[in-house]
Amino acid sequence: MCPAWKQEACRNESHVGWDNHMTVTHFILRGIPNTDGLQTILFFTFLAFYLCTLLGNLLILSAVLADPRLHTPMYFFLCNLAVVDLGIPSVSIPKFLAALSGQSRVISLGGCIAQAFFFHFLGSTECLLCTVMAYDRYVAICHPLRYLLIMNWRVCTLLAAGTWICSSFHATILASLTFTLPYCGSNVVDYYFCDIFPVSKLACGDTYVLETVSFTNIGVVPMTCFFLILVSYIRIIYCILKMNSGEGRRKAASTCASHLAVVTMYFGPCALVYTQPQLSKVLVTPLDVFGNVVTPMLNPVIYTLRNKEVKEGLRKLRGGLMMAH
User: Fold this and answer.
1) What is the secondary structure of 116-146 as a DSSP string?
2) HEC states along 232-253?
3) Residue-wise over 36-63: b if at least 16 C-beta within 10 A, else e?
4) In angstroms, rounded to a whole number, what is the distance separating the alpha carbons of residues 230 and 261?
5) Which SS3 state, helix, strand or coil, does residue 108 take?
6) What is the pLDDT of residues 187-229, one digit of tens each?
7) What's phi and psi for 64, nearest 5 deg?
8) Is the pLDDT of residue 323 over 80?
């Protein structure tokens, strides 16, 4: 007998079969583990977070583009971050909301590959962008007279393009290794979107290469980025302490506060999982949801609350819209 909640999965599994010569053509997304009966609450919660994320990041992009005073390297990288924060929840939330509203939980093989690729593509881009933004703050505070010379538009464009290109290679490798594995059994993914780890659990082949490459890409690279950010901020703190002006110290610290908050929200959950292995199984899903849903919404709020220039840009944008009407 097939439980009521799993009837769709059972029907679709029957088309896949257990013949080793057959391949999976679609997957069924089971949803967030241990949330049966909470569909309505999850639907409205995720919808609210998603709409706030779209609104906040679109406002940041509009404010920066509309105000020439914000056409600086710092805000150029902030716009890149806003694009990433628009993309990360858009990878998984629309399909998850559709499933919560009673629509099909089935996702095609191509859709599953796209989710896995873009999730790791955008996640890696955010990690690299945080590193680039830390370097930008280091140059601005420790070498203020040479800032515009060092961080010219050519350098900024190359740094931004480098984060996107490197991340595309990262995501292509992981997605390729995941979906070239043989899938000949169940096609029910025990998660709310197609991440490589829940999907690879369904493989009936050896996942050693995928696990090794995943450890390198998802473990070593972010740790390297975190180390570079840490070195940048050690240098920044040293430079701030050497400043004679109290006002200069406050201004320098203020420009770093927003970026530090974003870095903490990105790397903090990872550190919690890896430093508390006994809690990792309990924490991994809530922290993953936090990073995919809550963090992209909070980033524009952090930059707006802590930054007078962004606030002024938003006021100018609102004034322009009111005059247009």
Assistant:
1) HHHHHHHHHHHHHHHHHHHHHHHHHHHSGGG
2) HHHHHHHHHHHCCCHHHHHHHH
3) eeeeeebbeebeebbebbbebbebbbbb
4) 13
5) strand
6) 999 999 999 989 999 998 888 899 888 888 777 888 899 999 9
7) -70, -45
8) no
Looking at residues 4-10, what average pLDDT do you find? 47
State the chain's mean pLDDT as an integer.
85
Comparing CA positions, the residue from 122, 226, 115 lying closest to residue 178 is 115
Residue count of the chain? 325
Token pair, residue 221, equals 């690279």
Output the CA torsion sign for 174, 175, 176, 181: positive
Radius of gyration of the chain (CA): 22
Q: What angle do CA 11, 12, 18 make, to 5 degrees?
A: 105
Q: Pairing between strand 26-29 and 188-189?
A: parallel
- What tokens does 186 get? 């169940």
Residue 130: pLDDT above 90? yes
pLDDT score of 141 more than 50: yes
Alpha helices, H only, 27-146: 39-66, 73-100, 109-142
Contact (Cβ atoms closer than 8 angstroms) between residue 82 and residue 39: no
Residue 58, SS3 per DSSP: helix
Could you identify the residue written with the tokens 């959950």?
A: 269
pTM of the shown model: 0.88
Distance CA 261, CA 137 (A): 14
Residue 285 CB-half CA count within 13 A: 12
